[in-house]
């Protein structure tokens, strides 16, 4: 965080605080302009090919590649699910295939067919991913007089090979709601080509399995029936394939049980391949990466080997003499050697250890983006400047106060440890995640727990301590020495630095969370300089591996503390309802998101159950929506209003019914009504002359919008959370002074920074988009992919165009209620007089910190994706805050809920 300007400051500190925006932008510019393009843009690839050795004879006269979209290894190799494809056991090689970490259709098919590793940015271009350039087996076959190339299936291959001479492409994609017709047409075209001998190098993409999985999930009867259908279609076509061809039946990616993919989960990355042909050993098996199938294609067809192809021929499945296998591997190595030298030169790395005469596959980098020493230098320089500027900004009295020297040294050590933890993922991937969890918990516990309930207590209450309080007090207020001692003790017992650090961080999470809830933080103070929280918060928000889900833990204990105080004071149930509702939502968010522990992401199941597809899901949805309508109206109005609650319930149930009917006409009517309601609501709050609209129209419009697109559970969670923002802010508003924030009193700024952040993280978690913890070698650890776009459910994206929604329409439908709901959340804070500037600054610091360690991420895809998602979500939240403030400034400032505000004010200050 950035401390405010104060009078009588030393010149340097005052200047840094006054000019922090240009300083921060300059520091962001260096990694953004230099490192960002290298890592986030398309990587450069070498040109050229290695000629096929004349003494290496291929017996294959053609090749057929069949891609079954979204069919994971467990289904492809399942004799009950796909009995016909698995009937060739004696003649087929079974390959366990590992895809790249970007498990989207276009990115996987691109790697499968071109052999070029994806750049991280390719995930953003999934619906229009272009060819990476250069040669691949398919373009080389198209250039060869020996072969004729044909492709049939979805638009994905068309996007990649559009405009390539010598390739005939037939698009059979008939929309995202077509489950059978497109695949049947693909089968007809494929069999026609085989009958007519039109092409002898063919790729056929069956996309219906992916669409059925998205709609009903992989555990559904519909998915089983679709697998049976595709099994029959492909088997029928395979009967017509000449025996002298090589055949590969594989998948682009797998799917989770609820029908999602896109992330790096094992179930989405593990696919299989059934390979047979004249040179293939029947009954053999091997484990390969997806790009190895591209290398196999070059070998089977006797084509030149593209130097940019980053794959290894699985020579063990070829039915050729051992000397032929060795020759094949040497040919492969020559291309790999040239590619690696190109990459090393591009990144300023030494290639002296590489020898074209010595095959060493361990020397070959398998990922597409590599570390440059210059990027590391930029990153380290940026962090040195960040550390120095942050220290100078708080004006430490180093000459007159030795204790401040110790703290500043500890702070700089902490920054260095944060940076080193991200740079040393080769040793432990869990240490930075655990540190990120500890930091997130501290910033919430100290800001809200230190004060969020203390002003509700009488002095006698504050002085009462228990044994638990004494223990917590010892752990909380004895500084870094106690926690350092805990690390050393655990290391002596366990013999592992990783285990001792991670377990200490998890203990920190528990202690600070419970401490926030027991009000220990409100009755004691840390023996640190008054500016210490500014620096510790700065270190937390700039730590790229911060774990957002963990902010919910201390906040849950804080809400329990508030509930306890309200109950002891005799506050009515009506006025307890907002905090009680928050506590219940927090409990769900803390309990139902641990798939790697419980085997199921129960929050996603709740989201999936929000559509009326069965009696059970319909009953669940109806009950949830009625409860949400009643709770939200009561929380907003401060009293139970039967008619208003019933009216909102009816509106929500109408939206639920419409989503179940799946009528395009009805969908469009409701979408039009939603859009008009948004416009009228905006006109109403602007007090447009002649416009008299009931209060809450925009709220009701968002409610139906969420029901239609994201289902009943997501809509209910959104409504309740929105309705609780006002009462929640009323608890913390008395702590925010009207005077400018002081360097010696950072708590108000941190409250303003974390409160909207917590609400948004809670909401995103309730939508099933956040992962919690997992078991690991160290014990209990943060999930490596906490934020994950691959979990977004696109089921509601077809509203209005049930028969054939375009990808653009699906994206708009899925995203629009999320954008509106997020902006409305921020607006709920703004219209109550809360400044979102500290919140926006904290999100900017998240972007700055993540970008500043991006240089260390290329060898670690999970770190790269984590940083990319953290930056993406922080930028979105920054945008929501700016939009909410801009919208608020366009309208007059009405008094918001005066009666409710007055009641809660009296309740908080009896």
Major beta sheet summary:
8 strands, mixed
Helix vs. strand class: alpha/beta
Proportion of residues in helical segments: 55-70%
The global form is globular
Which key terms come to mind for this protein?
910 residues, alpha/beta, Alkaline Phosphatase, subunit A, 8-stranded mixed sheet, 34 helices, 12 strands
Characterise this structure.
The protein is built from 34 helices and twelve strands. Helix 6 links the parallel strand 4 and strand 5 (167-171). The two termini are 34 Å apart. Helix 17 (467-476) packs across helix 19 (497-518). The strands form three sheets. Strands 5-4-6-2-7-8-3-9 form an eight-stranded mixed β-sheet, sandwiched between helices. It has a two-stranded antiparallel sheet with strand order 1-10. The longest helix is centred in the C-terminal third of the chain and has 36 residues, at 697-732. The protein folds into three domains: 58-320, Alkaline Phosphatase, subunit A (3-Layer(aba) Sandwich); 396-546, no CATH class; 577-831 and 894-908, no CATH class. The chain is an alpha/beta fold. The radius of gyration is 30 Å and the shape is globular. The model is unreliable at 452-466 and 894-910 (pLDDT under 50).
Which SSEs are present, and which pair or pack?
Blueprint: H1 11-18, H2 20-40, E1 49-50, E2 62-68, H3 73-76, E3 93-98, H4 105-114, H5 137-143, E4 149-153, H6 155-161, E5 167-171, H7 181-196, E6 201-206, H8 208-216, H9 221-238, E7 245-250, H10 266-269, E8 270-276, E9 285-289, H11 290-301, E10 305-306, H12 322-346, H13 373-393, H14 402-423, H15 430-449, H16 459-463, H17 467-476, H18 479-494, H19 497-518, H20 520-523, H21 532-541, H22 552-568, H23 573-591, H24 595-598, H25 602-608, H26 615-637, H27 642-661, H28 664-685, H29 697-732, H30 747-766, E11 773-776, E12 779-782, H31 807-830, H32 837-852, H33 861-889, H34 898-908
Parallel strand pairs: 2-6, 2-7, 3-9, 4-5, 4-6
Antiparallel strand pairs: 1-10, 3-8, 7-8, 11-12
Helix pairs in contact: 1-13, 2-13, 2-32, 4-11, 7-9, 8-9, 14-21, 15-19, 15-21, 15-22, 15-30, 17-19, 18-19, 19-22, 22-23, 23-26, 23-29, 26-27, 26-29, 27-29, 28-29, 29-30, 29-31, 29-34, 30-32, 31-33, 32-33
């Amino acid at each position: 965080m950035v401390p405010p300007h104060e009078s009588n400051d030393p010149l340097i500190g005052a200047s840094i605080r006054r000019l922090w925006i240009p300083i921060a932008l300059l520091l962001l510019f260096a990694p953004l302009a230099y490192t960002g393009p290298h890592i986030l843009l398309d990587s450069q690839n070498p040109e050229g090919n290695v000629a096929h050795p004349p003494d290496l004879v291929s017996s294959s006269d053609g090749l057929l590649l069949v891609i079954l979209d979204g069919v994971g290894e467990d289904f492809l190799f399942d004799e009950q699910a796909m009995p016909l494809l698995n009937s060739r056991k004696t003649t087929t090689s079974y390959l366990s295939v590992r895809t790249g970490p970007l498990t989207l259709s276009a990115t996987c098919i691109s790697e499968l067919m071109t052999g070029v590793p994806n750049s991280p940015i390719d995930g953003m271009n999934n619906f229009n991913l272009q060819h990476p350039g250069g040669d691949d087996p398919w373009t080389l076959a198209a250039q060869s007089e020996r072969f004729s190339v044909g492709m049939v299936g979805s638009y994905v291959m068309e996007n990649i090979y559009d405009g390539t001479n010598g390739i005939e492409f037939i698009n059979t994609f008939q929309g995202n709601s077509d489950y059978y017709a497109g695949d049947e047409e693909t089968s007809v075209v494929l069999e026609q080509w085989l009958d007519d001998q039109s092409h002898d190098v063919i790729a056929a993409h069956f996309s219906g399995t992916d669409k059925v999985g998205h709609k009903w999930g992989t555990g559904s009867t519909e998915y089983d029936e679709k697998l049976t259908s595709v099994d029959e279609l492909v088997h029928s076509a395979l009967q017509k394939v000449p025996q002298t061809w090589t055949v590969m039946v594989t998948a682009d990616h797998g799917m989770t049980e609820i029908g999602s993919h896109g992330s790096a989960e094992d179930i989405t990355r593990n696919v299989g391949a059934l390979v047979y042909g004249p040179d293939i050993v029947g009954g053999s098996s091997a484990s390969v990466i997806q790009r190895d199938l591209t290398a196999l294609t070059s070998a089977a067809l006797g084509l030149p080997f593209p130097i940019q192809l980053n794959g290894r021929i699985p020579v063990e499945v070829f039915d050729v003499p051992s000397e032929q296998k060795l020759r094949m591997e040497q040919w492969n190595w020559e291309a790999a050697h040239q590619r690696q030298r190109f990459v090393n030169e591009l990144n300023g790395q030494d290639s002296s250890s590489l020898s074209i005469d010595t095959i060493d596959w361990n020397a070959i980098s398998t990922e597409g983006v590599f570390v440059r020493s210059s990027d590391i230098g930029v990153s380290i320089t940026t962090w040195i400047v960040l550390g120095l500027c942050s220290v100078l900004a708080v004006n430490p009295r180093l000459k007159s106060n030795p204790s401040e020297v110790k703290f500043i040294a500890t702070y700089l050590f902490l920054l260095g440890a944060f940076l080193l933890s991200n740079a040393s993922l080769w040793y432990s991937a869990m240490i930075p995640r655990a540190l990120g969890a500890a930091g997130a918990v501290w910033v919430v516990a100290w800001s809200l727990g230190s004060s969020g309930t203390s002003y509700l207590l009488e002095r006698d209450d504050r002085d009462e301590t228990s044994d638990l309080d004494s223990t917590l007090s010892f752990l909380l207020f004895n500084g870094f020495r106690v926690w350092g001692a805990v690390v050393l003790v655990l290391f002596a017992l366990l013999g592992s630095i990783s285990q001792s650090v991670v377990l200490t961080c998890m203990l920190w999470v528990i202690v600070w969370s419970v401490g926030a809830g027991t009000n220990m933080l409100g009755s004691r103070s840390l023996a640190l300089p008054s500016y210490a929280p500014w620096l510790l918060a700065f270190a937390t928000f700039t730590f790229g591996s911060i774990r957002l889900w963990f902010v919910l833990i201390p906040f849950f204990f804080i809400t329990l503390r508030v509930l306890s105080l309200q109950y002891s004071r005799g506050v009515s149930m009506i006025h307890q309802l907002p905090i009680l509702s928050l506590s219940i939502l927090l409990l769900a968010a803390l309990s139902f998101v641990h798939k790697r522990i419980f085997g199921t992401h129960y929050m996603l199941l709740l989201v999936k159950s929000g559509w009326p597809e069965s009696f059970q899901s319909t009953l669940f949805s109806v009950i949830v929506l009625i409860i949400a309508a009643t709770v939200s109206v009561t929380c907003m109005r401060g009293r139970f209003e039967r008619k208003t609650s019933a009216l909102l319930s009816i509106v929500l149930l109408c939206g639920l019914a419409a989503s179940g009917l799946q009528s395009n006409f009805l969908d469009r009517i409701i979408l039009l009504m939603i859009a008009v309601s948004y416009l009228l609501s905006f006109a109403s709050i602007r007090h447009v002359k002649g416009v008299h609209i009931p209060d809450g129209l925009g709220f009701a419009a968002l409610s139906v919008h969420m029901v239609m697109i994201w289902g009943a559970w997501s809509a209910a969670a959104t409504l309740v959370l929105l309705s609780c923002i006002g009462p929640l802010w009323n608890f913390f508003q008395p702590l925010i002074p009207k005077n400018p924030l002081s360097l010696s009193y950072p708590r108000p700024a941190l409250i303003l920074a974390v409160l909207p952040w917590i609400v948004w993280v809670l909401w995103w978690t309730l939508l099933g988009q956040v992962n919690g913890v997992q078991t690991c070698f160290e014990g209990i650890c943060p999930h490596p992919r906490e934020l994950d776009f691959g979990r977004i459910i696109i089921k509601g994206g077809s509203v209005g165009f049930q028969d054939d929604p375009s990808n653009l329409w699906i994206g708009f439908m899925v995203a629009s209620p999320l954008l509106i709901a997020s902006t409305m959340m921020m607006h709920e804070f703004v219209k109550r007089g809360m400044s979102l500037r500290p919140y926006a600054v904290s999100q900017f610091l998240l972007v700055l910190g993540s970008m500043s360690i991006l240089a260390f991420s290329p060898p670690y895809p999970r770190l790269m994706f984590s940083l990319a998602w953290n930056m993406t979500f922080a930028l979105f939240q920054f945008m929501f805050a700016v939009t909410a403030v801009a919208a608020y400034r366009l309208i007059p400032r009405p008094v918001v809920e005066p009666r409710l505000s007055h009641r809660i004010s009296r309740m908080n200050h009896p």
